[in-house]
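Technical annex, item 7. During the second reporting period the consortium partners agreed on a shared format for inverse folding records so that results from different sites could be compared directly. Each record opens with the tokenized structure and is followed by the designed sequence. A conforming record, contributed by the partner at site C, is shown below for reference.
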């Protein structure tokens, strides 16, 4: 079903496989945060996510005008799925830039996000508390700046 939609709308079967994989990854990540609550069949939910992902790809390629839209009973789920996809893309953007940071910055931010105090981070890293606070600030600032410079960030900001 997904391959048919993607191929019908200027895509390839390889792109359809990628879209399907991304949709499953998105659902998997969402279920790790909280139980999945959907108000339709899983097949319909998965298809709607794939469809939205492909539409975003087409938007990026600027070929959406040539596309033939397949209207299935997914319009009522559009808002919920669009929200899920936005969150998924935001997480992917964050991960991309987080893993581009140096090892120390990644470790400091991870420890901080896990709820560790600056004192315990300083002890673990062999820093003074004051230096740990400064490093956390610098790493956080670097992460924010690299994310904000990403074209995808501006696109996602526009969507929300």
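Designed sequence (site C submission):
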């Amino acid at each position: 079903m997904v391959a048919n939609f993607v191929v019908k709308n200027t895509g390839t079967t390889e792109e359809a496989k990628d879209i399907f994989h991304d949709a499953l990854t998105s659902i998997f990540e969402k279920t790790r945060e909280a139980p999945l609550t959907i108000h339709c069949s899983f097949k319909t939910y998965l298809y709607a996510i794939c469809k939205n992902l492909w539409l975003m790809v087409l938007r990026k390629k600027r070929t959406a005008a040539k596309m033939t839209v397949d209207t299935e009973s997914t319009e009522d789920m559009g808002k919920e799925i669009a929200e899920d996809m936005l969150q998924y893309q935001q997480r992917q953007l964050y991960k991309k830039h987080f893993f581009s940071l140096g090892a120390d910055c990644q470790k400091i931010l991870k420890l901080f996000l896990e709820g560790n105090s600056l004192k315990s981070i300083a002890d673990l890293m062999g820093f003074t508390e004051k230096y740990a606070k400064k490093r956390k600030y610098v790493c956080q600032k670097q992460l924010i700046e690299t994310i904000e410079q990403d074209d995808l960030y501006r696109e996602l900001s526009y969507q929300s």
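Residues 34 and 61 are 33 Å apart (CA to CA). The chain has a mean pLDDT of 82. All partners now use this format for quarterly exchanges.
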